[in-house]
């Protein structure tokens, strides 16, 4: 995971981005990816983060609770289909008053 912010004018909300997630082909479909993601989400919660953003497969990430970021009016800083840009609230209603554009680390520019 990497630190990000959701920016709306002067308002900035700290969050995390989950990506990329990859496992070796010989262990696909054995739950390794799911275990990595669940461990990362748990660690994020322990560290006090309240949300996680992912740009990923719309049939895979919802099983972890990810929903389209557009439900919170959270947008990517680039063109991306709505169904692949998702957010997970690690704390219930953590994003209730949050909206804006995700600002990734400069390393991703």
Q: Quaternary state, please? A: single chain
Model regions low in confidence, pLDDT < 50 over at least 5 residues: none
How many alpha or pi helices?
1
What fraction, in percent, of the residue positions are helical?
10-25%
Spatially, the strands of the biggest sheet line up as 4-6-3-2-1-7-5
For the terminal residues, how far apart are their CA atoms?
Answer: 16 Å
Could you state the CATH homologous superfamily? Gcn5-related N-acetyltransferase (GNAT)
User: Looking at the structure, what is the overall shape?
Assistant: globular
Count of distinct strands: 7
Order of helices and strands: EEHEEEEE
Largest sheet: 7 strands, mixed
Structure characterization notes:
This protein is of the alpha/beta class and 109 residues long. The chain has a single domain (2-108), classed as Gcn5-related N-acetyltransferase (GNAT) (Aminopeptidase). 14% of the residues lie in helices and 30% in strands. The protein contains 1 helix and 7 strands. The chain has a 7-stranded mixed sheet with strand order 4-6-3-2-1-7-5, covered by helices on one side.
Secondary structure elements and their pairing?
Blueprint (H helix, E strand, L loop, with lengths): L1 E7 L2 E8 L13 H15 L4 E5 L11 E2 L5 E2 L9 E5 L10 E4 L6
């Amino acid at each position: 995971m990497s630190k990000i912010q959701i920016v709306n004018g002067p308002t900035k909300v700290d969050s995390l981005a989950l990506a990329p997630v990859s496992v070796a082909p010989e262990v696909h479909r054995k739950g390794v990816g799911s275990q990595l993601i669940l461990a990362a989400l748990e660690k994020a919660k322990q560290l006090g983060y309240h949300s996680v953003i992912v740009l990923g497969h719309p049939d895979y990430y919802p099983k972890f609770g990810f929903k389209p970021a557009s439900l919170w009016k959270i947008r990517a800083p680039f063109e991306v289909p709505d169904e692949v840009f998702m957010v997970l609230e690690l704390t219930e209603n953590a994003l209730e008053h949050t909206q804006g554009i995700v600002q990734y680390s400069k390393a991703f520019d």
